[in-house]
Amino acid sequence: MASNSLSIGDQYSAIADWWDAHHLESDYGTAQVTRALKFTQSGGTALDVGCGSGGRLIHLLERENFDVTGLDASKKMISLAQKSHPAAQFIHGDIRLWQSEKTFDFILAWDSLFHLPLISQKPILEKLCGLVSEGGVMIHSLGDDNGEHKDEWRGQTFHYSSIGIAANLEILGQCGLSVRHVELDQYPEKHAYIISQKLPKC
Q: 186 — phi, psi (to 5°)?
């Protein structure tokens, strides 16, 4: 996940305190995650990919009695998350390298996968599909676009990529997940999210 001379983890570590102050109790993304949680049973295991410093979305999961595992490339973000959510498990790591022998009843990847290089989009979405338990639900956000771009934010250059909505839907279907909801939720910005579910085998 290289971006200039810094990894994406280093970039977010540099703004971690600012991020935590502005996002810990915000409502950004809460309506979308609440919608996804309606497709689940209360409780179980949850994985938050790109969990950042935690806060509002992990609070939602905890209120629904999920045992939360958070994964983030930023060491500083993980440290802040551990302080805010002592009952949760947090892992400093790269989703491209991280492996898990267990599956999860709920997977959340909110505004994290678009930091992956374009070449990693398909294999990582396939990887996450494989980590969803039977009957489990996944919500992930993405860009309604194809290709790569960069943007200046908080004094740094951040890199983004997307393979678009149609390709995401195709991968989910190939991996056995049924799409429950698709929305371009910040129009005219090219921000979308998809809720999908792995149906139990007959």
A: -130, 35
